[in-house]
Design a protein that fits this description.
This protein is 36% helix and 17% strand. With 266 residues, it is of the alpha/beta class. It binds zinc ion.
Length: 266
């Protein structure tokens, strides 16, 4: 009898292991169901986060990626399979198809496109939180400009090799990405996954840190968002939390102090 009741469970029962977690609770779950999240990039970080957020019952995900699934993605991009790679499916639509099988309650809007000055403000419109699944700083600076301009929280994250970092930006409350990095790093000054590799567990950790921050924000728990830059180096066993408090009163950030959004202007 009990089994039968369970098979016709209410939507909230599906999330019972979340709702019994007191800081989230049924009210937090209802907020997640009503939340809209923009996933920028659906490679390793983006697909892992989309998987976690859809399973958690975030009600609506807009997933943007211009790329196609390749066999060498499967080592770390947990949402995709060999059929996706054989069919060279767009990552955004392949992700949407898999997520629909995982949680049919979630509305997914896949967009196969590049994130650019001409579309980022449209992409961010009506969204409660943005998660970073991109692989380059020019796109992150663009996301930062759009998020700060429109007052939308976003979570920066990146990883290469066994190193990764993440930071939560709540416009008006925390430093933004340009407070941390006034200038965009030159492309050849930083290691990339094609040149330096990437191990799956690095992705898992950074994606998890970003996803929990998105869940806090989407469920209305802004008071507990992370106030630090989290940095991990997993091969050498270092996990650090670097304070951002010194950046908060910076008066010279073009984006969050002066409202100059140079990246949006292209
Ligand atoms: Zn700033």
């Amino acid at each position: 009898m009990k089994e039968e009741e369970n098979s016709h469970s209410s939507p909230i029962d599906r999330y019972v292991r979340q709702t019994v977690f007191a800081p989230l609770g049924p009210e937090g779950q209802r907020r997640l169901a009503a939340a809209r999240v923009l996933v920028c990039g659906c490679g390793a970080l983006g697909s892992t986060m989309a998987n976690m957020l859809a399973r958690a019952g975030v009600g609506w995900l807009r997933i943007v990626d211009r790329d196609y699934v390749d066999l060498h993605n499967l080592q770390r991009q947990v949402l995709f399979d060999e059929e996706d790679a054989a069919g060279r499916r767009p990552k955004a639509t392949a992700a949407a198809a898999h997520l629909a099988q995982i949680n049919s309650d979630v509305a997914i809007e896949p967009i196969v496109d590049e994130i650019a000055p001409g579309n980022i403000e449209r992409l961010i419109e009506g969204v409660d939180v943005v998660v970073d699944g991109t692989d380059n700083f020019p796109t992150r600076f663009l996301m930062n400009d759009a998020a700060v301009k429109h007052g939308v929280p976003w979570i920066y994250g990146g990883c290469v090799g066994t190193q990764g970092q993440t930071m939560t930006i709540v416009p008006g409350q925390t430093p933004c990405l340009r407070c941390l990095l006034p200038e965009c790093p030159a492309p050849d000054s930083i290691p990339t996954c094609p040149t330096h590799g990437i191990l799956g567990p690095t992705v898992g950790i950074i994606a998890a840190l970003e996803a929990i921050e998105a869940m806090k924000i989407a469920s209305g728990n802004l008071t507990v968002v992370s106030p630090v830059l989290a940095v991990v180096e997993l091969w050498e066993n270092r996990i650090q939390q670097l304070s951002l408090a010194g950046l908060r009163d910076r008066a010279d950030c073009p984006a969050c102090k002066h409202g100059r959004f140079t990246w949006l202007d292209g």
